[in-house]
Each structure stands twice: as structure tokens, then as C-alpha cells.
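ugh ok so i messed up the first submission bc i forgot one of the chains. this is the corrected input, ALL of the components this time, i swear. 311 residues overall. if the numbers dont match what u have on ur side tell me asap before i send this to the collaborators (the ones from the other lab, u know who)
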Amino acid sequence: MVDKTVLARQFIEAIPHAKALGLELTHIGEGEAEISMPYNEQLIGDPRTGVIHGGAVSAMLDTCCGAAVMSHPSAPGGTATIDLRIDYMRAATPGQSIHTRATCYHITRNVAFVRATATDEDTDRPVATASGAFTVEGA
Amino acid sequence: MARPRPEPMQVVKQRRDAALTALVEGVPYIRFLNIHFDRRGDELTGVLNFDEKLIGNPFLPALHGGVTAAFLEVTAVITLSWEHLFPRIESGEIGAEDILTDENIRFPKTIDFTVDYLRSGLPRDAYARAFINRAGRRYASVRVEAWQDNHARLFAQGTGHFLMPQARAGQS
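and heres the new structure output, hopefully the right one now
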């Protein structure tokens, strides 16, 4: 179990795109994962306001959901996204880092069901939420 | 009734390309992903230029699912913005410079976006095209498809809903 957590952390940190976004895994284990992303001007979607592009938030949520699946005690190994829906509630506040938290709330031999939330420093009002289905792949 | 003489082709092309470039190049995140758009008349195709930093699974290797989602969303928003602004670009009411600076020109906002992952994205260029299911006054529904080598074998598709920019009070 401990090994898998370490493995998952190494796996996430070895993802080139996760590195490009500056993602940092802050918690993982038992089907849950948390990732944070510092504010980065390269990821701005609206140059007039400095708000981060929704696509970068999607990439973060997708990574976080995948990490949650891999850390689940019943998951033997890797995973891939089957489908992911993102709802955007509001713009993330410019200058603040974004945090995501994903929970793999159900898993079968073949499919894992996950939901996730993204917030900025105002943790009471979500920036975006995600819900998706992921594959469960053999170890 | 003599119809007005059509504008020279270079004038039309220059105007449209400058407006499209302003729309795309003004967004840092689109440059970060290195997405550009091919234009044929008013039809746009998004092109995601492959780079190592877009990889999500280094063992396969495959494109990151989040990159695929972002590419589809960027293609949807740009296509929707383009169609929304096109009549005003054509009439000469707004130019490339206005797209970058005019506070009154605003863009659709994503409400939700769903991505269907059909096969893994290969480590090479990808293409996407968006189709506007409906563009109402307040809301729009857009479908996007993405492919790589073979247009008939999509590697992802998506659907999203967007909030259209509202004219501010006192503005026609």
C-alpha cells in the first residue's frame, strides 16, 4: 500500500505535462488525491483580467482524478480517462494558486468513478467541479 | 442594378487573417499549448503542434487527457468567438487591433464541457473542428471532434455549453 502511494507520486511527477503546468501532488492515498498549481502567467486565458484558462484547470482536474484512481486500494495499476465532464462555476482569482481534490468513490474491475473540485484561496466557493469515468488497468 | 465590385482577394484575406491572429495569439495559454488555426473562408481547424511537454503517459507515450480536453475547449471557444464576431469583422466595424484592446469586445465563457476519450492521443500533431449546434442570445451549444492521422478515426470528441457575451446596458 505504501509502495503504491510512493509509486503514484513518482508517476505523477514524471508526467511531462504535469511538470509543464507546475503541478504538485500534496496528498494521495485510499482513492483520494490533492494537487496544487501555482499561478503562472503562461496559463492565462483572458489577458485583460489575468484569469487562468479553463483548459489548464481541466488538465489539473484530469490529473488529480487519475491519481485518485491509482491510489485506490482496489486499483491494480494504471488508468486512462474514459470521459470527463467539467463544470465551471467562476473565474479563478488572478495571482492565486489553484487546488484540486479528487475522490474515487466507486471502483469495479473495469471502471473507476471519480469526482473532483477545484478552488483557489477562497475554498468555500468552487472554481470548477469534475466528474468522470476512468479505466482500471491490470498491474 | 449593378452590384458593387467585390473586394480584391488580398484585402479580404488580410482582414480575416489579421482578425484571427489577434483572436488566437492574444491568449497566453493558447501559445503555451502551441495551438494555431487554419482558415478556409469562415471554416476553422485547430492544429495542436506536438511537443514533449504535452505527454501525459510517458510509457505509451500518449497525449495528456487534460491537453486533449483543453485543445477541444480552445477550438470550441475560438470557433464560437469567430462566428460571433465574423459579421462585424467583415463589415469592417471591428479590426484586429480592436479584438486585442477594445473592452467592449468580450468572449463566450465556458459553462460546462464534456470530453469523450475514444482512443489514446498519439505523440504527434492533432486537429480539431467545432460545430455550433445552436448559438442563442445567451447560451450556445458546441460539439467538437479531434483526430490525428485519419479524420474518420476520432481520438476524442466533446460537447460544451457557453454563456454568450451580453451587450452592456446602454449599449446597442
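quick check: Residues 60 and 91 of chain B are 49 Å apart (CA to CA). that seems consistent at least. The longest helix of chain B spans residues 65-90.
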